[in-house]
Amino acid sequence: MTSAKDIRPRQDDLAFQAQYFSTSPSASFHSPSSHGSALARVIPVANAKHLKPFATEDIKVLLLENVNQAGREILQQQGYQVEFLKSSLPEDQLIEKIRDVHVIGIRSKTKLSERVLKEAKNLIVIGCFCIGTNQGIAVFNSPFSNSRSVAELVIGEIIALARQLGDRSNEMHNGTWNKVSNKCWEIRGKTLGIIGYGHIGAQLSVLAEAMGMSVIFFDVVNLMALGTARQMETLDDLMAEADFITCHVPELPETKGMIGRAQFEKMKTGSYLINASRGTVVDIPALIDAMRSGKVAGAALDVYPNEPAGNGDYFNNDLNEWAEDLRSLKNLILTPHIGGSTEEAQSAIGVEVAQALTRYVNEGATLGAVNLPEVNLRSLTLDEPNHARVVYIHQNIPGVLRKVNEVIGDHNVDKQMTDSRGDVAYLMADISDVNASVIKDLYERLESLPSRIMTRILY
Ligand SMILES: NC(=O)C1=CN([C@@H]2O[C@H](COP(=O)(O)OP(=O)(O)OC[C@H]3O[C@@H](n4cnc5c(N)ncnc54)[C@H](O)[C@@H]3O)[C@@H](O)[C@H]2O)C=CC1
Ligand SMILES: O=C(O)C(=O)COP(=O)(O)O
C-alpha cells in the first residue's frame, strides 16, 4: 500500500490546488452526499481564493462502536484526524457529528439513515468494520474476517444446548447441585441444518462434520456442498430433518421472520434453534411458544430485533415486550451479539477496513468496495510535477465515457481505468501535464456533465 507520504501532493508550484468532492442529486448511486448540495465543495486554505491541495491531515474520521485499535492506528498513522467513540450514537447526535466528517467507521449498531446522510456533506466513504452491510449504504467492509469466530461460537452453543450447560451453570451459581442426564445428548450422529451456506455456514459445515454430525443446508443459491453435506430443496425439508437448526442469512426483506410459526411447526419435537445472524430472522414470540410447548428443546440467540447502542441495561426496559418471557425460559442461551467479538476477528477487521479506507481516501482505489466496481491504478506519484489523478463516479449510461474523454483527452493521460457495477461507473485517470488552471477547468467540465455523481481530483 502506498504510504501517505508517497501520495502527499506537492505544495509549491500549483497556486490553485484542490481536492474536490461533489455530487449529483439525481444519481442512483447511494453516494452519501448524493442527497446533499449539487454545488462543488472544496477545502479552502487561508485565503479563500486558494484552494487546499489534498493533505491527509485535513481528513476527519469518526469511528463509532469501539473499532479495534489495529484499525484506528492505521488511520492515525496516515495523519488523519481520528475521533473514536466506544458506542454508537443516537440519530440526532450522529447528525451533529457527521457534518464535517470525511470518513465514518461503524459496526452493526449504526444505521446511516437518509436523514443522517443528508447532513453528511463532506462524507466520501463509509467503513463497515463488520460483515453485515444492512446499513442501506456501505462502501467497504470485511467480508469474512469474523466468519470463523461466529462458526466457533455456534459449535460451542450446539454442545451447550445438547448438554443444557447454561442451566446447569446457572443452578450451580445459585448453589444447586442438579446432576441429570435426562434429555442431555451427544452431538455425534445428530443432524445440523444450516440456513444460509455462505462464509459462516460453510465454515460451520466443516467443523460440525469433524465432530461427527451430519450436515444439511438450505440456501437460495445452488452451492457446492462441502464434505458430505447435502443441500435441501426447500426450507421445510431442512426444518423437518434437522436436530439442530442454525441461521446464517443476511438481513433482507425475504429473510425477515423467515423462521416463524409455520417453520417451528415443521421442526422435530425436541430439536434446537440457533440464531447468530440478524434479530429479524426469527419470530421471537413464535420461538417462545415453540419452547413452551416443548417442540424446541433449547435455543441460542446472539441477535435481537432491537439492540442497544452500547453496553449496559437491555432487558430492563420496555423496548422488547417479550424480554420477560425469554428470561424465564429454560435452556435458552442469550448472548449480546458477540458472534464476531474475538480479539482475532476484531483485529483482522480493523486492519482490512482501515487499509481499504486509506487506499480509497488517498488514492481513489476501490478494491474491496461493497457498492462500487473495483478500480485501481498503480500508485500515484504526486511528487512528480504537474501530475493529478481524476476520480470520477458517474451513472452507468451510454455516451458518458465519450464525454469524459472529450474533457480529459486534451491532456496527457498516463493511465486510465474504468469499470461499472449496476447503475454506477467508476473512472480513474492519471494526467501528467496539469497546472492549477487546467485542474480547475477539468473539474468544472466534469462537474457539468449531467451523469456525474462525484468528482475528486487528487494532487
Ligand atoms: N452474530 C454476529 O456477530 C455476526 C453476524 N453476522 C451475520 O451473519 C450473516 C451471514 O454471514 P456470512 O455467512 O458471512 O454471509 P454470506 O453472504 O457469506 O452468506 C449468506 C448466505 O445466505 C444465503 N441467503 C441469502 N438469502 C437467503 C434466503 N432467503 N434463504 C436462504 N439462504 C439465503 C446467501 O445465498 C449466502 O449463501 C451476515 O449477513 C450477518 O448479518 C455476521 C458476522 C457476525
Ligand atoms: O459482522 C457482522 O455483521 C456482525 O454482526 C458483527 O457485528 P459487530 O461488529 O460485532 O457489531
TrEMBL record:
Pathway terms, separated by semicolons: Amino-acid biosynthesis; L-serine biosynthesis; L-serine from 3-phospho-D-glycerate: step 1/3
Keyword Cytoplasm among UniProt keywords: no
The organism's place on the tree of life at top rank: Eukaryota
Keywords: Amino-acid biosynthesis, NAD, Oxidoreductase, Phosphoprotein, Serine biosynthesis
Domain ACT: 389-459
GO terms (BP aspect): L-serine biosynthetic process
Reactions this protein catalyses: (R)-2-hydroxyglutarate + NAD(+) = 2-oxoglutarate + NADH + H(+); (2R)-3-phosphoglycerate + NAD(+) = 3-phosphooxypyruvate + NADH + H(+)
One Gene Ontology term of the molecular function aspect: 2-oxoglutarate reductase activity
InterPro entries: ACT-like_dom_sf, ACT_dom, D-2-hydroxyacid_DH, D-isomer_2_OHA_DH_cat_dom, D-isomer_DH_CS, D-isomer_DH_CS1, D-isomer_DH_NAD-bd, NAD(P)-bd_dom_sf
Record-listed E.C. numbers: 1.1.1.399, 1.1.1.95
PROSITE patterns: ACT, D_2_HYDROXYACID_DH_1, D_2_HYDROXYACID_DH_3
Gene3D superfamilies with a match to the protein in the record: 3.30.70.260, NAD(P)-binding Rossmann-like Domain (3.40.50.720)
NCBIfam families in the cross-refs: PRK11790.1 (NF008759)
Recorded family membership: Belongs to the D-isomer specific 2-hydroxyacid dehydrogenase family.
Primary role: Catalyzes the reversible oxidation of 3-phospho-D-glycerate to 3-phosphonooxypyruvate, the first step of the phosphorylated L-serine biosynthesis pathway. Also catalyzes the reversible oxidation of 2-hydroxyglutarate to 2-oxoglutarate.
Stated name of the protein: 2-oxoglutarate reductase
Lineage: Eukaryota, Fungi, Dikarya, Ascomycota, Pezizomycotina
